[in-house]
What we know:
By secondary structure, this protein is α+β, with helices and mostly antiparallel strands. The protein has helices spanning 2-19, 108-113, 150-155, 161-164, 177-182, 185-188, 225-230, 260-264, and strands spanning 32-33, 36-37, 57-59, 64-68, 71-79, 84-88, 120-127, 173-175, 190-197, 211-212, 214-217, 234-237, 244-249, 252-254. It has a domain at 82-217. It contains eight helices and 14 strands. The two termini are 34 Å apart. This is non-specific serine/threonine protein kinase.
Amino acid sequence: HPLKHHLTLTLLALTSLSHFPPASPLTPCRTLCGTTAINYPFSIDDGCGAPQYRSMLNCTGTDLFFMTTSGRYKVQSIDYKKQTMVVYDPAMSTCSILQPHHDFVMTDVESVVIPPSSDTVFALLNCSIDSPVLNRYKNLCFNFSGHSCDELYGGCNAFRVFRSFTNSSPPCCFTGYDTVKYMSMNILDCSHYTSFINVDGLNGIGPADWVYGMKLSYAVPDTGCGRCTRSGGACGYDTETGVMMCLCSTSMNATRECGKKLILD
Length: 265
Ligand SMILES: *[C@@H]1O[C@H](CO)[C@@H](O)[C@H](O)[C@H]1NC(C)=O
Ligand SMILES: *[C@@H]1O[C@H](CO)[C@@H](O)[C@H](O)[C@H]1NC(C)=O
Ligand SMILES: *[C@@H]1O[C@H](CO)[C@@H](O)[C@H](O)[C@H]1NC(C)=O
Ligand SMILES: *[C@@H]1O[C@H](CO)[C@@H](O)[C@H](O)[C@H]1NC(C)=O
């Protein structure tokens, strides 16, 4: 019966309306940069996300960048479950390319809220014999997974040049982020550094096959963002006071969650 059919369709439509969450109202916060999802606590629009992460990311339309004091690093991936972000500094030397000397410097806020994780190792290369990491601070250097950092001079096209002057390997040091955080490359007296990630899995694997870059580790501030998100809003903050807000639509903000009326609009 055509009328019955029509009724069934209407009922179906009504049921799906009440059973599925409504499409999010248009908040001012973009949730995608290229193919990378942008979720709390990050944002690419001012006033969105958590205030501690303000101005940390820059989206060029297709590519996402992590902004630091020492440069603009490409975001390779964000793992929202593990709360990690892998970044790559295009100006850093790696096993296959030697680039001019430079430092790795994060902003003060970044070094607290999103520092490199412990499975990111820094290799300080071509150090002078007076380097603090060969003397007073030599306990900051370590071997990992059976690797000696001499391997980098032998196993990497980019780093072979460090041997060519003296016919021997200049000192080097594997160390963690804290060392480069507190000492610049000038203080360390090493001409170059490189960094690589997932160091627990590098047993028996040569430096040509390591993954170069940094894995940063962050924590999500506990500000009741879930409640706002469930109500269809996006978590943000007042750009003047930094106080958390729930952004419900381009024309309405709430303190904690978006009102039901707004969701049905
Ligand atoms: C809502 O908050 C955002 C972020 O602070 C701000 O840019 C926007 O102007 C606010 N909108 C309204 C309608 O108050
Ligand atoms: C992103 O970077 C570009 C180029 O460096 C700059 O012009 C722009 O202001 C930045 N945008 C934000 C939101 O920081
Ligand atoms: C290695 O370090 C020395 C200083 O200790 C520097 O003169 C030399 O240029 C460095 N080598 C390269 C290839 O940068
Ligand atoms: C690291 O390895 C090198 C070469 O294999 C060795 O000479 C050195 O004693 C080791 N250092 C530590 C702290 O185990």
